[in-house]
Amino acid sequence: MAESGELRFIPQFIIVAALVLGLAPLLAFAVSQGGIPTFNETVWTILWFTLKQAALSTILSVIPALFIARALWRHHFLGRDFLLNLFALPMAMPAIVVVLGVTGLIGNAGLLPALISPYGLGGIMLVHVFFNLPMAVRLFYQALQATPDEAYRLAAQLGFSEFVTFKQVEWPQMKVVLPQISAVIFLICAASFVVVLTLGGPGTTTLEVAIFQSLRMDFDPPRALALSVLQMALCTVLIGFAHKAFGHDVGFMSMRRHGWNFMPQSLATKVAHLAVIALSAFFILPVVCILVWRGIMGWHLDRATFSALATSLCIGITSATGALFLAWPLAKAQDSWSKLLALSGLIVPPAVLATGWFLLARKLNDSTALTFVFITALNILMALPYAVAALRAAHAKLAPLAQLQSQLGISGVNALRLIEWPMLKSSFAQAFLLAMVLSLGDLTAITLMGSNGLVTLPTLLHAEMGHYRGAAAEGTALILLIICAISTLLAQRFGRYNAET
Amino acid sequence: MLKLNRALYRDKDFQLSASFEAKSGEVTAMLGPSGAGKTTLLSLISGFASWVSGQISVGGTEISQLSAADRPVSMVFQDNNVFPHLTLAENVALGIAPRLKLNMAQQAEVEAALLRVGLQALAQRKPGQVSGGERQRVGLARILVRRRPVLLLDEPFAALDPGLRRNMLSLVADITRERDLVTLLVSHQPLEVAEKAQSAIFIYDGLARACVPMQDFLGDKDPAIVAYLGSPP
Question: How far is it, in rounded angstroms, from Cα A361 to Cα A197?
């Protein structure tokens, strides 16, 4: 498509403008408050807890995932595809819904009380593992899918034992992606907001939450500045490791039975595989089941719920549309600035950005419409890394056709109509749904910006939880869960279609 | 000697039956149009897929009930014959010691095999640091240390330049003679393998025909073979 040089960089310009609009007021404010960042004892304690909780969550997610992925890969059984699809669900579940499910399972009023407290380090780690272990399983599984058939034929012919097959065939495949997967999970856990806000406490808070609290509750800009500097440095370093794997779990390759699995398996191996698989399912299913069961019990569709649903859908669809418009040019761009900007929602802490915009909004006309714009903008930035990753994979499919296309002189609208849209529509749908799910379940942006009268499903749920209206909360959570699950399954379907064509 | 007696394979619509004898010390070319089942036939002999019925024996011993690891067969694939994270020497050593714990005698055997295929100088390199032809030589060196009487080659040289392909073919023919192997070579280049292969098996229309001397095959007036070879210029 012929595009003029100036127009091409509009998305990049919009993102930079959004970042500047957030960072500049905050910096000005911090300076006006006599703001030299103060790196005191409190700040270091918060940093230490952030790192400790992220490291533990990562280890507890990644190491079991290695074995679960291998067991799923090597053991073919009815329901395996279902399980792999089930493992896509936690990523789509809004954090606040998972928090409700976990506290319902192991809290004071839970089914299994007294195992561990859902609050503090234990609970935060549990929820983080719930989110990230399934994602790690899927990413390792994808790495295993790249194993050449011949490797297994050789292993069979050379009489490799189970251990040697793991060491020489499977571990080398997984080892390559291990650092990236770990970095992605570490990043997600280190920047986690809603989970830590709801389950953490004074001694158990992370940088992201502490930034929010020191600006909005304690009103301590120098400390917020120090925390922000640390958070941005941490995220930048992690992005350096993680960017290759980020948002990679978009669209599964074929999950058909792998045609060449010749390794004879002993009974002990089969039992071990099934045990690992059963344990992993047991980790996910109870939370989902309790949410569904109690959700049915507390099912209600009153006016407040409907209006919250409408608001959520409005924010979700607007954010997803905006994310697509920014993501497609970014996905096509090859320069490293564009790649960096696509990840800006991960590098610049949303808490920092939101506070800057919040200060800006105070100066401007403080209306609900403006809040809506800011919430949507923050959602777009947070969804962008995933949307760009999905579209970049799609764009790669067009590249081999570029020469043929230019030789035939197909360009502009014709290219879009004849080539790009037919080939990429499933990817666009997938990216749209991914971005929409993230925005629908969002509690981060709206908490950070202040709701200003806007009530979405997650804020309604959060309020109901806060007022001990358990049954109502569970009903609301189920509605959210259903919408997010359906959207994710659809996105999966589109992604798989995309991977197979 | 490798002998297939009314061996039958079936997978949905595809069917392949084979009865032939291939002699040891000879390279036998497996020829036929694409999709006829040449690769399938090698998979069946090496135990990566199973026959519906029939017998298959090596040196008079029935092998169809053996697992892939226990069959007296080595195979070199078109691609991916090496593990990319291991050195060439380690890749060869896997043929005798899957745990890579070698005694002195095994160590010497690996070195001798690398020397035989001309890779002695590259023994400590990783596959990514050598050429495609050198990677395929690793597969050949491994079959030398494995010492199995049947060698199956699934177009392992197809991606190489013509000169290199000739050299590799000569190497295969020499090894076959030295070790008295039954060598089956799948190829899409009948004229190129003609000088090194003593006999040929034509696979066409679900049937692997009997093994015939190479010259007889090239002069065969069977319409299917004539069509496959194309008219001479």
Answer: 24
Alpha-carbon dihedral angle through residues A423, A425, A431, A433, given to the nearest 10 degrees: -150
Q: Is the ipTM of this complex over 0.90?
A: no
Our CA-based measurement puts residue B119 at a distance from the nearest CA of chain A, in whole angstroms, of 21
Give the model confidence (pLDDT) of A154-175 as tens digits: 998 998 888 898 999 899 989 8
CA distance A401 to A191: 40
- Give Cα A334 to chain centroid, integer Å: 24
Question: Is A264 an 8 Å CB contact of chain B?
Answer: yes
Is A156 in the B-facing interface, judged by CB distances under 8 Å? yes
For residue A278, the distance in angstroms to the closest alpha carbon of chain B comes to 30
b/e per residue B82-118 (b: at least 16 CB within 10 A): bbebbbbbbbbbbbbbbeeebeeeeeebbbebbebbe
Chain A residues within 8 A of B69 when measuring between CB atoms: 156-159
Best to test chain A binding among B14, B44, B73, B81 (most A CBs inside 10 Å): B81
Q: pTM, whole model, 2 decimals?
A: 0.84
Residues of chain A with pLDDT under 70: 1-8, 34-35, 108-115, 243-264, 366, 496-501
| Contact call for residues A153 and A145 (beta carbons, < 8 A) | no
Residues of B in contact with A154 (CB under 8 A): 77, 81, 83, 94
CA of B97 to nearest chain A CA: how many angstroms apart?
9
CA-nearest of A359, A365, A357 to A381 is: A357
pLDDT in tens, A315-373: 999 999 999 989 988 888 878 788 888 888 888 888 888 888 887 877 777 678 888 88
Q: Per residue in A122-150, pLDDT tens?
A: 889 999 999 999 989 988 988 888 888 88
Burial (Cβ within 10 Å: 0-12, 13-18, ≥19) of residue A77: exposed
Contact of A500 with chain B, judged by CB distance below 8 Å, is answered with: no
